[in-house]
Amino acid sequence: MTDVVFLILNSNLFSTPWSIYLDGELVRGKKFSLPKICNDCSELECLKEEAKAICSKGMESKKDFVGGRHLVIPGVKSDSKNRKEKTQSITDQSYRQWVNEVKSLVANLDQEALNIKSETLHYFHDPVKWAEQIKINSEKMIDSRSGANFREKFSSASNEVKSVYQSAKLLVDSIQMIDIFFNPESATYGSTVKTNIYRLFDKVQAILFHSEGKKYNKRFKMVGTSYKEIHLYESFPIIALSLTHNALKYSKTREIEIFIEDSASNVDVEVISVGPGISEIEKPRIFEKGYRGKAANVIHHDGSGIGLYVAQHIAGIHGFKINVDSEDLGYSDGGIAMAKNTFSFKVPARGV
Question: What DSSP assignment string belongs to 96-115?
Fold first, then answer.
């Protein structure tokens, strides 16, 4: 949809009075051109997400996010030292009205696209039931193995049984994730399930380790102890899948730590990995529908911005929020600043 936004604003079908930048791509205005000082500028400070509204040359810009893209209208005002510099004529009211119209158009296009895509989910009804039955039967085969926990039982199972269970489990959870993406209310469908969160994450990490982690020489380290069993919706495991898979994809070190501990009234969870830093501006946006961070696009071409959005939605219906902290480590990998990234949340022990 982001490409559609650029085409619309760059066409004659929609009035774009001011010259703007959309994710760094210039769209020429129908009424106003870039001020000469902006047109000749090579630093383009205004395009940096963390940049101040007034650049070092004294030119003021207006900024917003439209359709998941960074929109900048440069040169709307100048300070005293650039008083003679011609600027783009814009008032706060006209700017806000125009941006709201663009956002409304994009939202309508997005909704129509979602409606069309969601119709295809009806064709997956029977395949999901079949995959669910395969998952149940293969899980029973794994549970019959000797071992103190699912991880030990899973490790001792044959490669054929592991492969069948992995494929069925990930398929069922992935389709459920897509279903919630298109129909958020479905996150509360079904009965609640008494869940031990530590065992849930242990099961998910075992599956991901054998399906992807081992191949890329990455492993999960389970830390802490948690014995509480909480009544949660059937959609809750998607949070574990989304956060562990996200860490696996973007981790630049071998080990990913999963910390789970009981507290007085919650179960505290942290998924910790070293990977691309997440800026203050990106922190809330990575949970938005369809959004992918800049570094994520560089490291992994696949991905559609579904997982974290759905995980945060499921967290909300359970009465908590997923938080993210990104601690800069002072070095880069492939030109990307590395950080210790921690996704954390507290599940209320009262359940739902």
Answer: HHHHHHHHHHHHHHHHHHHH
Contact assessment for residue 62 and residue 32, using Cβ atoms and an 8 Å cutoff = no
User: Dihedral through CA 239, CA 245, CA 246, CA 247, nearest 10?
Assistant: 110
Dist. CA 215–CA 224, nearest whole Å? 26
Please report, for the domain that includes residue 247, its CATH number.
Answer: 3.30.565.10
Q: How far is CA 236 from CA 177, 205, 331, in A?
A: 10, 15, 35
Number of domains in the chain: 2
Same domain, 225 and 83: no
Contact 29, 98 (CB under 8 A): no
What are the tens digits of pLDDT across the range 118-175?
666 566 666 777 777 888 888 888 888 888 887 788 888 887 887 888 778 778 788 7
Q: What is the pTM of this model?
A: 0.66
